């Protein structure tokens, strides 16, 4: 009986791939597609390819580390394994928690942008996008407090629904491109400069970050040596192709001016030329389901990160306390998300999220390089991953600093805040020990 029970608890390869795909195809593509197109124009598919290539190289480091150090702490454990329990590792891990909060803000902003369209279709009175975003955060938090099992069920159903709708969109969109009058927008003459293509890719890098959730499931994946790498590579490669095709359909179906006007809900707008109001409605519903499920899962993930950090003595032990049978970090995550979603613009949120994850992934790749003998990895691939993330991060910061300094200051300020909090905490703990 025990053996059967253990087998049932194991995560299959199919389920592990679903975790990766579900983590990436959450609210990201709905939130940042318009932003990417605004920056890269006809070269938007190339920007998604650039971002995807960096995600795939980083997935190599994650795969090797997950096989060697399977732990529900995932990224937190990898950083601590490579750097020890230090102010630096604590700062990076704090940044992971904050990055979850930033992603929640991104998803809530996307929900808030799509929701008014649904009510407009039904001729109902619409509210401010911030209200929709705030309400959905509160509802998802209540669901997390009510039952984690319900969160899991919502995620399982949502992954199927959003993939079916997006794949249908792709199939119909490819057919519709044959009669589109906007295909010339994809020509090289309509691409932005190579630098802008890279910057656009880094701005929307947050749409790929979800593959790291596979690391948290690593201890439960069956036949881990074979299935963990397959889960990472399979999910990332699938999503790269999905994003590229979606961006081709979008740029090939709508005029650039139409894309700019509907930037916050451009995927729904792209369905109009093919299916009219019905297509617009279906994609809007898919966006609402996707962003809601992503918020649900990210709230749980964020609260778990804060719990892990507290257990590892990188944040106060009070964060291990329970409030209504859930870590206190869940409530803190909700409040912080409400603050960000009501104070920052979508572009600022996306920039901060990309800066955070590029820095985190650069560090994970470095850990893969540093421990290459122990984890049996190719040190050159992990080094390339570290350098790619670092160069992409610097490119994004420098370019954004010349065009939108506020976004960079917010992103850098968040990073510094994470390290400052860790420094103050470690110093206080040291002073307590000395006394």
CA distance, first residue to last residue: 53 Å
Radius of gyration from the alpha-carbon trace, in angstroms:
21 Å
Continuous helix count: 19
What is the CATH class name? Mainly Alpha
Q: Would you tell me which CATH topology applies?
A: Amino acid/polyamine transporter I
Low-confidence stretches: 1-8
Spatial sequence of strands, sheet with the most strands: 1-2
- Looking at this structure, what is the CATH superfamily? Amino acid/polyamine transporter I
The count of β-strands is 2
Share of helix, binned: over 70%
Write a structural description.
The chain is mostly helical. It is 79% helix and 1% strand. It contains 19 helices and two strands. A hairpin with a 2-residue loop joins β1 (322-323) and β2 (326-327). α2 packs parallel to α11 (224-253), α4 crosses α18 (379-403) and α6 (87-121) packs antiparallel against α16 (346-370). It is globular. The termini are far apart. One of its GO terms (cellular component) is plasma membrane. GO terms for molecular function: transmembrane transporter activity.
Summary tags:
19 helices, single chain, two-stranded antiparallel sheet, 79% helix, Amino acid/polyamine transporter I, 435 residues, mainly alpha, 1% strand, globular
């Amino acid at each position: 009986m025990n053996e059967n029970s253990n087998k049932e608890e194991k995560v299959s390869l199919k389920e592990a791939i679903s975790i990766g795909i579900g983590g990436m195809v959450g609210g990201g593509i709905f939130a940042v597609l318009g932003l990417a197109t605004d920056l890269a124009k006809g070269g938007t598919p190339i920007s998604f390819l650039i971002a995807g290539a960096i995600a795939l190289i980083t997935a190599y480091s994650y795969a090797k580390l997950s096989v060697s150090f399977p732990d529900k702490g995932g990224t937190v454990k990898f950083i601590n394994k490579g750097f020890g329990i230090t102010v630096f590792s604590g700062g990076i891990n704090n940044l992971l928690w904050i990055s979850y909060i930033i992603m929640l803000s991104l998803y809530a902003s996307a929900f808030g942008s799509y929701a008014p369209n649904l009510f407009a279709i039904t001729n109902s009175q619409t509210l401010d996008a911030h209200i929709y975003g705030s309400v959905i955060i509160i509802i998802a938090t209540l669901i997390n407090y009510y039952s984690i099992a319900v969160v899991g069920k919502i995620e399982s159903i949502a992954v199927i629904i959003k993939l079916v709708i997006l794949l249908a969109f792709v199939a119909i969109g490819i057919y519709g491109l044959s009669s589109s009058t906007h295909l010339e927008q994809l020509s090289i003459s309509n691409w932005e400069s190579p630098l802008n293509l890279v910057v656009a890719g880094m701005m929307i890098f947050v749409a790929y970050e979800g593959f790291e959730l596979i690391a948290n499931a690593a201890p439960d994946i069956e036949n881990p040596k074979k299935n963990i790498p397959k889960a990472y590579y399979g999910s990332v490669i699938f999503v790269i192709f999905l994003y590229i095709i979606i961006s081709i359909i979008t740029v090939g179906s709508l005029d650039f001016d139409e894309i700019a006007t509907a930037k916050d809900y451009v995927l729904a707008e792209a369905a109009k030329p093919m299916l009219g109001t019905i297509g617009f409605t279906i994609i809007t519903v898919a966006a609402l389901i996707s962003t809601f499920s992503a918020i649900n899962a990210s709230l749980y993930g964020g609260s778990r990160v804060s719990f892990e950090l507290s257990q590892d003595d990188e944040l106060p032990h009070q964060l291990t306390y329970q409030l209504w049978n859930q870590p206190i970090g869940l409530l803190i995550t909700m409040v912080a998300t409400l603050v960000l979603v009501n104070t920052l613009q979508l572009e600022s949120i996306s920039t901060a999220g990309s800066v955070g994850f590029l820095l985190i992934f650069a560090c994970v790749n470095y850990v893969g390089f540093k421990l290459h003998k122990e984890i049996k990895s190719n040190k050159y691939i992990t080094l390339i991953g570290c350098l790619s993330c670092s160069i992409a991060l610097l490119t994004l910061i420098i370019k954004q600093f010349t065009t939108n300094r506020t976004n960079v200051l917010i992103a850098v300020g968040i990073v510094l805040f994470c390290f400052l909090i860790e420094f103050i905490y470690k110093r206080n703990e040291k002073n307590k020990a000395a006394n």
